[in-house]
Structure formats: structure tokens, C-alpha cells
Specification:
The structure holds 2 protein chains of 2 kinds.
Chain A (H helix, E strand, L loop, with lengths): L2 H18 L3 H12 L4 H7 L6 H40 L18 H14 L4 E2 L5 E3 H4 L19 E2 L2 E6 L4 H10 L4 E10 L11 E11 L4 H16 L5 E8 L2 E12 L5 E12 L1 H7 L7 E8 H9 L12 H4 L4
Parallel strand pairs in A: 1-5
Antiparallel strand pairs in A: 2-4, 3-4, 5-6, 6-10, 7-8, 8-9, 9-10
Chain B lengths: L1 E3 H7 L6 H11 L2 E9 L4 H4 L2 E12 L2 E10 L6 E5 L9 E5 L14 E3 L2 E3 L2 E2 L2 H4 L10 E2 L16 E8 L10 H12 L19 H4 L1 E4 L7 E8 L8 H9 L7 H13 L3 E5 L7 E6 L5 E3 L5 E3 L5 E4 L4 E4 L3 E2 L12 E7 L2 H11 L4 H6 L7 H17 L2 E2 L4 E2 L9 E5 H8 L5 H10 L3 E4 L3 E5 L11 H12 L19 H15 L3 E2 L5 E2 L3 H4 L24 E2 L4 H13 L5 E12 L5 E12 L16 H13 L6 E4 L5 E10 L11 E6 L1 H6 L6 E7 H7 L16 E10 L4 H12 L3 E10 L8 E10 L8 H19 L2 E2 L2
The chains are: A alpha+beta, B alpha+beta.
């Protein structure tokens, strides 16, 4: 047999040894045995110079091909064995992965803020701007421009907090003064909402608070009717309480709107009791209010609506007592993180 | 207001079940709080078992002295045997009988029972057993003229449904059974029975002027005063039906005369008052303002002190009634009264309300007057009450009426354009329907092609005076459920302003750092200024004071965000939370001369207590001035503002451990954006907070002003290398880190992108009074790659400057 004839057997023996190697040490042994300086293949390669000239080319080519095949097999086998080895080492590691992970404390926005921003987002998407105004207001913005006449019970000092020494200045009993200011500042179309704290002279109990939160909206434009009012109220109610919510619009009375309505929704509380719940008060802006801000009531129509954010929070989250919202008790606040 | 439906039925036979009626009322503007059923369960099967019976015989029971065996005719073929224990049962009476199977309030169904051997097939009833009131001491005697066998429900309101209504303040006409009957008529179209305004015969002795005279001295507070006189009045209990109605309507029966005034008030909405004319000092009735300090002992036994803003109905000597609110007990109708003066008047609504609030006294009467009643109403109420006094109290009406009455005014007329109604309602209502609705509501309508001309009846004149008011009347009866739901066009930007967005960003960042948002009352005790250790001349002692605070604890508007948060912290510490973090967004109020305030908006955070280590490998967070500064800085970073701390001297913070934080573009101490520090231990003590506690207060307007509004411009620090070099120096421990950093920046020039202290060490190796400080410099030029020599030169400049300016020695 010629040298050339030996090469496939050498290669196959080497490949077999590589495949057999069960550890990196075995593999090294196989490498030394089959590719090492004294290995048969190495000897073939180093003996090429001694071959007849016509054999050198073919032997060199085959022997080098065999060496590359064995080297590739070695590399592949090494990678596999190393991965096995790493797997074994990793598996020996001891770690109780049921221990708690590193803490990233999470606080909560107040429930009133959560409800407020949610309603704001619904109305921002309808093109409303958020307006702001003083909480300590003059009589014009608190009452007169809102068509609340002198002598009206809402103006009495038993209902409204007046500033000492200033019988014409009071903590705003609703956020509507902001709407008056918005109308004073611009011509229609007006689409604004005014969220914020309001004040009424109620003693603190499970359903009353001398400070609470409203979000009111005002739209003044050409051609606005009760259909637009209804569409807006229903949209807000659905976004807030669910698309399938049942609702009904009932007549009501507010000094600053005519006609006036309340939106009731069918609400099932956490104890499974269903009832009609007053969610929003609203109405078409009273002509006297337009007169107070100098809008032409023949050209413009508009509607206003308002809701108690505290009450919505209570209803939606099943709070038994309004006071929870003003105590800043972390055991309460953190539940809504 | 409580509306007994049997009473309503007398004026409008609507044929609706109580719940259905309640729904219809709610849908048209009368809020129904509750539907109540009183007395006997009202189903027809049960009602059929209650009859009028005639007692044919009432014999003593053979085996029981106190029982009687009665034979009662119930219109059946033969009389029934019923055993009765009442002492007053007697042959010939008409009585109320319940048959076996009948259900009475609070009892098992009646059975057929044997009483001492005699089988009783029914029960003769007392008022109490029917739930009609009474003392229960005997059976109820009915009008003997009643036919035996007649359903009892036709004679007495034995099954009463009552609607509890919540009437809005603009509709005092609905605080009346007949007013509600008109509403039900308008809603259902069922015919409305008008009030019976037949005058009784005037058979009393003499003329009204012979008994009494009238002088109204304050017509501004009393636009109308009417009075009549009745003689030979016999005061006694009212008949059962009247008592039953009053009680169903929520009023107590007192005596026939008083009951008649209450009954007519409930029917018409016009309060009335009856005086014992013989207990008044003289025949004169003077309607005048009270004298200062004038006293009345009202019916409820309370002494009331009046003032000249209040109206009094007086005799020659003293007030007999606080007008529209309550009468004095010494001229009240009582058992011996025979001569009655009956008042029906109109009083100014706001004045009644003011007086009622000032006196802390409300009544059914004041609740109606305060809403404003029309001057036409007293005449109607007077007629009905007069007739009832004559019919029920044996009274004789003296001819004539004392009346200060104003001249009648023509009904105001209002035009309602059909186009306008459609524009407001969003749907067309056929003109004929609009007209019909308004007519049913009591308006007089003249139809036209374009518009309706509408005359407003007296009881609606306070509420309806403009076109929009009529549109509401038409719309609510036509039905708001017919209006479609449509969204208006969108014209706005639909975005929060920068200030609004900033508040939300800060809040979310604080929450993500573990703080929770508090909402505290903006009215606080004035003593907070002392608790905050404010100096005597500190401008923050100037506060907005409430005229009528609920308590001293809620007396003034806050000037600082801290007290609310500190009280909240104390509350949490009392309730199992020794440590935690809170923040609040809100305003403080600096008074202005006109009574309003400069309202500034703040973001304030308070971290209270020493956080306990509560994780198996993460150490407890710190709570000191540096954690507070870090919190302030990360909040400012939410607005892309980097802050520079400076020592500060607020009295409520630890004298040394506090800073104010300035925006970098205000090098000469421009307005601070925020303050941070450890709360002074004495302040903590004042608020019962266990320290440590740190606070951060951010002036939102200042932060917004410092925030860059333009978009961030890209700087290429990606393709050039950015090097960091540490410079460690030893300085006196009085040298401030901020000064070292400022020196390093100034010396390093623009190539020093950032310089910060990353380590600080004091100890024996460094030396007494010295401290080792390590600065890390970030060096780069976005335009090119710096050579090592250039970087080394920058570092050397920094070292030299630190040595020169601060005596810094290089650390060994």
C-alpha cells in the first residue's frame, strides 16, 4: 500500500477518537495521538519531502485535507465538551432563587389624582383644555356670574366658607368660577375642563367633607345642543365605568344651566347591589351666564357638566368612608399603587 | 317630601303601580329617594280580606267576662261570629274587619281561632292594628252610614304607598300633593281634579273686623297677609283618615285645628298658622320687624332671641310667631280654644332662610317659604282650610277676610320659538305637543306658526321667566331619552400645558421612588406658624382667615406645605407605619388686601422615620439631608433641570442640614427652585413625629421657569472617546465639596464635561481636621479625539487650581 492509501484510515481513526472523547482530557489525548508531532498523520506530512516527486502533490493534498477535517472535528467536539462542562459547573452552583428580589419601592398617586387624570385624558382627547383658577374667589365668579342670586341658600355662611373681613370673598364652592374666567378671557369656541379642590361648609363624616374635588367641563360653540351634551356625558361615563354601562338622563335643577340634567348610571357595587347612581350634573349654559360674560346667546349655545371626583373614586373602588381620601394613611394609599 | 299615593289618587288617577310612577317621576325631574309601603301589605288578594262590618249583636262570652261574641254583617249571606276583646264594641257600630288569611302589619296571617270554645272567624280591628296610629285601646269606629261589606281600603288608607321625594329648590310648588298631582297629570295625561275652592258658609258672629285688625308694617318682608276668624271652635282629635294622611306624609297629628293647617299645607304648599285669638293681647295683629333682643318661646319649648332682620307676627305686646318659621307656645291653639285666627301669608323667602339659619330652626313651613311662594297661594289655602275648620272642628266662620293683599298682576308672558327649542334640545318637538305639555303643566298657551306665546301661572313665576325655561319644561316631559347622543366637533389641541404635564411627571417620579401622594385639608390651625418656628415677623404668619371655620384646627388657609404632611406622618406613625414617604401637590395662600390670595403651587415631599432594613441583602435606605437632596435632584431632573445646592437657613429645618437648590443659570442666587433638609427636631416634636424626617419642597413655577423648553440638541460623544480621570486631594474639612467642583470645572475649562465628588474620607490616616476628597472628571471634546498629553494637562490644571484655591494636597 502506498502512503496515499493510508491517509483515509488515519483520518477515520482520528475522527473516531475525537468522537469517542468523553472529556476535554480525552480530547487532548486524542489530539496528541492523531495530530501530535509523533502522530502518523504528522509523520505523513513531515515525510512528504522524502516521497517520489509525483506522489508529493496528491499525498500533500490528501494529508492536509485529513488534518483539517480532524481539526474541525476537534474544535467542534471541544466546544460541545466545554458547554457540557460549563453546564455541569453551573448546575453545581447553590442558589435559593425563591429569596426575594431586590426591592424597588412603588408608591401611589392618590386615588383622586388617578380618577382626575383619567377623566382629563378622556376629555383632552375630545379637544378640551385644562383650565385653572383661584380657589379663593370673589363674589362675581363664585356666584353672581353663575346666576346664583343674592339670598340663595348656597351663598349663606352656613354653606360657604367666607374670608374673614371680606364678605364678598369665599373659598370657591364649585370649580365653575374657572369657567367664567375662561369665558371672560376668550371668545367661543370654548372647550375647557376645570378640575380642582372645592369647599363647602360641611362637617366631616363618612359622606361629607369640607374640602372635596370636582371636575367641571364647559363647551361653547355654534350649534351645540343637548344631543352633544348627552353624547359627551355618555362618552365620559363609558370610558370611566365601562362601555356597557346603562345610563339615563334625568331632569334636575342648577342655577347656571337651563335645561339642567343629571346623568345616572346603573352601578352594581361590590356587594352585588345594583342601583341608579348620580354620576354627573349638567345642562345647557343658562342665558344669564352668557349675559354675564358678554356672549351672544342667540349665536352661541353651550353646555356645562360637573362631577365629584371623590365620589367617583368611592363608588368605583368600593370605599366605605369618604374620610379615607383625606387621612393620607399609607395603608390606604399604597393599595392603589 | 313624603307623598302618600292614596292622597295623590284623589287628584289624579294615574293607574300606575308605585314603582312605575316613581320611575316616570324620576325621568321627568322629580327625584324619588324611596318607595315605601305602610300598614297592610298592599296586594289585591290581601286587601280583599279587609271589609267594613256592621255589628249586629255583641253578647258577653259565656266563659270570659272580657270577651264579647259578636255577630258581624259583612254583606255576606249570613253574619259571621267574631270574638272581640275591646271594651268599646257595641251593636250598631260600623267597624273594620279582617277575615281569616288577612295579613296585618308585623303579624302572621290571621287564622280561624277558638276563644274559650267559641270559633272566631275574623277580627275587629283597632287603628293601631291597621298601622294608622291611635292608642290601641279600643276598636276603630267607622262612620255608621257605611255599607256593610264594603272594601275597607275604599274607606281608609289601610294600604299606603308613600314616595319619598327630593324636590329641587326651584319647585316649591311640588312640595304639595296637588302640585305633584299636576306633575303626574303632565306626565301621564290622566285628568287632574282641581282643588275644591268652595267657600264654607260664613255663619260666625259679627264681622272679622269686630274680632281682629291687621297692620303690616314691613311689607317688604311680607307681601301678603290674610287672616280669618272662626268662633265656636271645638278642639279635639281629627278623624282617622286625616290622622292617617298626616302620619303617612311624615307629620304628627296634634289636634283637629292644627291638623287642618298642616293638611292644607301638605295639599297646597302654602303654610298656615292658627292662633288662639283669646290668648292674644288684644285684637290687633301687627306684622313687623322684631325689636333687638326680643324673645319668643317657640312651640318646641326653646327660648329664641330675635333681631330686626327677622319678621314677627305680634299682638299688642309681643311676638306670637317668628314669621314663616314657628309660633310661640303661649298663643297656640289648645284644648280650650274656641276662637281661632287663621293666618295665610306670603313672606320673603331669603329673609325666612336667613332667620331660620340664624336661629338654627327649620320647619316644614320655613322650608317652603324660604324657596319663595307666590302671593296668590294664600287665598286658595285659606278657602280650603276654612271649609275644613267648619266641617271638622264645628267652627263657624266669621264673615270677611283681613287681607293686606297686593293688587293682582297680569301673568307674565314668555315666547318659545320652535326653532330655539330644537336648537337647545337637539330634536324637534311637534308644536302641538309642546303646547299640550305646557298646558298640562298649568301654563296658558297661545299657539303660533313660529312660536308659542305662554302665560306663566303664579306658582311657576319664580322658576320660569325665559325661553330656555320653557324649553326645559317641554324637553323634560317630552323625554330626554329621545335625545340622541352625539359628540361635538373637536377644535382644541387636547394637550396638557407644560405646567400641568410637569406636575404629573413629578408625581409619577415620586411614586416610582416609593412615595405615595397625600391629600390634606388646606385649612389648618393658625398655630402651625409657631410649630414651624417661624419668626414673629415672618411674612408667612400673614394668613387668610375663614369667617366661620368649622374648628380652630381648620381656621386659616395654609402658608406652608409641611404641616399637612407632618400631621399625616404622625398619623401613620400612630397607625403601624413608623417610616414612609408622602408627597402632596397643592397651593399655599398669601393674603392680598382685597381678601383673595396669591396662590402658589408646590410639590412637597416628606420622608419620615428611619427606614428599617427589611431586605435580606439590600441595606436600608438613608434618610438624611443627602437623601433629601438626591430626591430634589431627581425630581428636578424630571424637568431636565440640574440644581446646585447652597446652605440655607429656614427655621423649620435642622440649622446645618438643609439646602436651597438653585438652577445653574442663576449663579447670583436667583430664586431657588427647591428646598431640602432634615426637619428640625423641635418641629417634629410639635407635630408628634418621631424622627428623622426630611422634606423637599419644590416651587413648581420656578422649576418650570428653569426647565428648558426647546428640544435637546444632539451632541456627538459617541464617535470620540470620553475619558474619566480621578483626582484625589486632601483638604481641610471646612472646604465644601461644591467649591472643589466649581474650581475643578473652572480650571478644567470646557473639556471637563462633568466633575463630581465620588468619595470622601476622614480618619486617622488623613489627619486631624483634614479630609480626603476624590473627584471624578469626565474629559472629552465632541469635535475630536484628545491626546493623552492633552488630558493629562487638563488634570494638571485642575490639581494646580485645587492646590492654589483650597490648599489641596495630592493624596499620598
Amino acid at each position: 500500500m502506498t502512503t496515499l492509501d493510508h491517509i483515509p484510515a488515519l483520518r477515520d481513526a482520528a475522527l473516531a477518537a475525537v468522537a469517542r472523547a468523553g472529556s476535554l482530557a480525552d480530547l487532548e489525548e486524542a489530539r496528541v495521538a492523531h495530530l501530535g508531532r509523533r502522530s502518523p498523520l504528522a509523520e505523513v506530512l513531515s515525510g512528504i519531502g522524502r516521497l517520489a516527486p509525483d506522489q508529493r502533490g496528491p499525498v500533500g493534498k490528501d494529508a492536509n485535507a485529513a488534518r483539517r477535517a480532524v481539526e474541525d472535528a476537534l474544535a467542534a467536539r471541544r466546544e460541545a465538551l466545554e458547554a457540557e462542562e460549563m453546564g455541569r459547573l453551573l448546575a453545581e452552583d447553590r442558589a435559593d432563587v425563591t429569596l426575594p428580589g431586590d426591592p424597588h419601592p412603588q408608591g401611589a398617586l392618590h386615588l383622586i389624582t388617578q380618577v382626575r387624570t383619567e377623566v382629563e385624558d378622556v376629555l383632552l382627547a375630545l379637544g378640551y383644555a385644562i383650565a385653572d383658577g383661584p380657589e379663593i374667589e370673589d363674589d362675581r365668579h363664585n356666584f353672581t356670574a353663575l346666576n346664583v342670586p343674592a339670598g340663595h341658600p348656597a351663598r349663606s355662611s352656613s354653606d360657604t366658607f367666607y374670608v374673614a373681613g371680606h364678605p364678598d370673598v369665599a373659598l370657591r364652592p364649585q370649580t365653575s368660577p374657572v369657567q367664567i374666567r375662561a369665558m371672560e378671557a376668550q371668545q367661543p369656541p370654548v372647550y375647557v375642563i376645570s378640575p380642582g379642590a372645592v369647599y363647602r361648609r360641611d362637617d366631616v363624616d363618612a359622606t361629607h367633607s369640607p374640602m372635596f374635588h370636582q371636575l367641571e367641563g364647559l363647551a361653547v360653540d355654534e350649534g351645540l345642543s343637548m344631543a352633544h351634551l348627552k353624547g359627551t356625558l355618555v362618552h365620559v361615563a363609558r370610558e370611566l365605568l365601562g362601555q356597557g354601562i346603562e345610563y339615563v338622563l334625568r331632569p334636575h335643577f342648577f342655577p347656571f344651566t337651563e335645561p339642567s340634567v343629571e346623568l345616572y348610571v346603573r352601578w352594581t357595587d361590590r356587594r352585588g347591589r345594583a342601583q341608579w347612581l348620580e354620576l354627573l350634573g349638567a345642562g345647557m349654559v343658562d342665558p344669564n351666564v352668557f349675559a354675564a360674560v358678554g356672549y351672544d346667546p342667540e349665536r352661541w349655545t353651550g353646555f356645562a357638566f360637573g362631577m365629584g371626583l371623590d365620589r367617583i373614586a368611592m363608588v368605583r373602588h368600593g370605599l366605605p368612608d369618604l374620610r379615607l381620601l383625606f387621612e393620607s394613611d399609607l395603608r390606604f394609599l399604597e393599595q392603589f399603587a | 317630601m313624603r307623598l302618600p299615593l292614596s292622597w295623590l289618587d284623589e287628584y289624579v288617577r294615574h293607574g300606575l303601580a308605585p314603582e312605575e310612577l316613581a320611575d316616570r317621576l324620576a325621568a321627568t325631574g322629580t327625584a324619588v329617594e324611596a318607595v315605601e309601603t305602610l300598614r297592610v301589605p298592599p296586594d289585591p288578594d290581601n286587601l280583599a280580606l279587609f271589609r267594613v262590618g256592621r255589628v249586629r249583636e255583641a253578647e258577653r262570652h259565656p266563659d270570659a267576662d272580657r270577651l264579647r261574641v259578636c255577630r258581624v254583617d259583612l254583606g255576606e249571606e249570613a253574619p259571621r261570629t267574631i270574638v272581640c276583646g275591646a271594651p268599646n264594641v257595641a251593636a250598631g257600630q260600623a267597624v273594620a274587619v279582617a277575615l281569616p288569611g288577612a295579613r296585618l302589619p308585623g303579624r302572621e296571617p290571621l287564622g280561624v281561632v277558638r276563644l274559650r270554645g267559641v270559633e272566631s272567624r275574623g277580627m275587629i280591628l283597632s287603628e293601631t292594628e291597621l298601622g294608622l296610629g291611635g292608642d290601641g285601646r279600643g276598636i276603630l269606629e267607622l262612620d255608621p252610614a257605611l255599607e256593610a261589606g264594603r272594601p275597607l281600603a275604599e274607606v281608609l288608607p289601610i294600604a299606603e304607598a308613600v314616595l319619598e321625594l327630593d324636590i329641587t329648590s326651584n319647585r316649591p310648588d311640588c312640595l304639595a300633593v296637588h302640585g305633584m298631582a299636576r306633575e303626574v297629570h303632565a306626565i301621564t295625561g290622566a285628568p287632574l281634579v282641581p282643588l275644591d275652592l268652595t267657600e264654607p258658609p260664613a255663619e260666625g258672629r259679627g264681622q272679622v273686623g269686630d274680632h281682629a285688625w291687621l297692620r303690616v308694617e314691613a311689607p317688604d318682608l311680607c307681601p301678603r297677609y290674610m287672616a280669618r276668624v272662626f268662633t265656636e271652635v271645638r278642639v279635639g282629635p281629627s278623624p282617622a283618615w286625616l290622622r292617617a294622611r298626616l302620619e303617612a306624609a311624615g307629620m304628627r297629628a296634634i289636634s283637629n285645628v292644627v291638623d287642618v293647617t298642616n293638611y292644607v299645607m301638605l295639599l297646597t304648599g302654602q303654610p298656615l298658622h292658627a292662633f288662639d285669638l283669646d290668648r292674644m293681647a288684644g285684637p290687633g295683629v301687627v306684622v313687623r320687624r322684631a325689636h333687638p333682643g326680643e324673645e319668643v318661646i317657640t312651640l318646641d319649648g326653646q327660648r329664641r332671641v330675635m333681631d330686626p332682620s327677622m319678621l314677627a307676627i305680634c299682638d299688642a305686646e309681643r311676638p306670637a310667631v317668628i314669621a314663616g318659621i314657628m309660633g310661640a307656645e303661649d298663643v297656640e291653639v289648645s284644648a280650650g280654644t274656641t276662637r281661632v285666627l287663621l293666618e295665610a301669608a306670603t313672606f320673603d323667602g331669603p329673609a325666612v332662610l336667613t332667620a331660620s339659619l340664624a336661629l338654627g330652626l327649620r320647619s316644614e313651613s320655613s322650608g317652603r317659604f324660604e324657596k319663595g311662594l307666590p302671593v296668590e297661594l294664600p287665598a286658595r289655602a285659606m278657602t280650603i282650610a276654612s271649609r275644613m275648620l267648619v266641617e271638622l272642628c264645628g267652627a263657624r266662620m266669621v264673615p270677611g277676610t283681613l287681607d293686606s293683599g297686593p293688587e293682582p298682576v297680569a301673568a307674565p308672558r314668555v315666547t318659545m320659538r320652535h326653532a330655539r327649542a330644537e336648537a337647545l334640545l337637539g330634536i324637534p318637538v311637534p308644536p302641538a305637543e309642546s303646547a299640550a305639555i305646557l298646558e298640562r303643566l298649568g301654563f296658558a298657551v297661545t299657539p303660533g306658526a313660529e312660536a308659542l306665546e305662554v302665560a306663566v301661572p303664579p306658582e311657576r313665576r319664580r322658576d320660569v321667566g325665559r325661553e330656555a325655561d320653557l324649553v326645559e319644561e317641554v324637553g323634560r316631559i317630552h323625554g330626554y331619552d329621545r335625545i340622541p347622543a352625539v359628540l361635538p366637533r373637536i377644535v382644541g389641541r387636547g394637550r396638557r400645558t407644560a405646567a400641568q404635564a410637569l406636575v404629573l411627571r413629578l408625581s409619577r417620579r415620586a411614586a416610582d421612588l416609593g412615595l405615595s401622594e397625600a391629600v390634606t385639608y388646606r385649612f389648618v390651625p393658625e398655630s402651625d406658624a409657631d410649630r414651624l418656628r417661624l419668626a414673629a415677623d415672618d411674612p408667612r404668619r400673614e394668613v387668610v382667615r375663614l369667617a366661620h371655620p368649622l374648628s380652630e384646627e381648620m381656621a386659616v388657609m395654609r402658608r406652608s406645605m409641611l404641616p399637612g404632611l407632618l400631621r399625616a406622618a404622625a398619623r401613620n406613625q400612630r397607625h403601624q407605619r413608623p417610616d414612609g414617604g408622602l408627597f402632596e401637590v397643592g397651593r399655599t395662600y398669601a393674603p392680598r388686601p382685597d381678601g383673595t390670595a396669591e396662590e402658589r403651587e408646590w410639590f412637597a415631599a416628606l420622608v419620615f422615620g428611619a427606614p428599617a432594613r427589611d431586605h435580606w441583602r439590600v441595606p436600608a435606605a438613608a434618610n438624611d439631608v443627602w437623601s433629601a437632596i438626591g430626591l430634589a435632584e431627581t425630581l428636578a431632573a424630571a424637568a431636565r433641570v440640574r440644581l446646585r445646592p447652597e446652605p440655607n437657613a429656614a427655621p423649620y429645618f435642622h440649622p446645618v442640614r438643609q439646602v436651597r437648590l438653585l438652577p445653574p443659570q442663576a449663579p447670583d442666587g436667583g430664586p431657588p427652585v427647591a428646598w431640602a433638609g432634615e426637619v428640625h427636631p423641635l418641629v417634629l416634636r410639635g407635630f408628634d413625629v418621631t424622627g428623622p424626617a426630611t422634606a423637599v419642597v419644590v416651587d413648581l413655577a420656578a422649576l418650570l421657569a428653569a426647565a428648558p423648553s426647546e428640544a435637546v440638541a444632539f451632541e456627538d460623544l459617541l464617535t470620540v472617546p470620553v475619558s474619566t480621570r480621578d483626582v484625589a486631594v486632601v483638604v481641610h474639612d471646612t472646604v465644601r465639596a461644591a467649591d472643589l467642583v466649581a474650581t475643578a470645572r473652572a480650571a478644567g475649562g470646557p473639556l471637563v464635561r462633568e466633575a463630581r465628588v465620588f468619595d470622601r474620607y476622614a480618619g486617622a490616616q488623613v489627619g486631624e481636621g483634614l479630609v480626603s476628597v476624590a473627584l471624578r472628571l469626565t474629559v472629552a471634546d465632541p469635535a475630536r479625539t484628545l491626546t493623552d498629553a492633552e488630558i493629562a494637562e487638563v488634570v494638571e490644571r485642575v490639581r494646580a487650581a485645587l492646590a492654589d484655591r483650597h490648599g489641596a494636597a495630592a493624596r499620598a
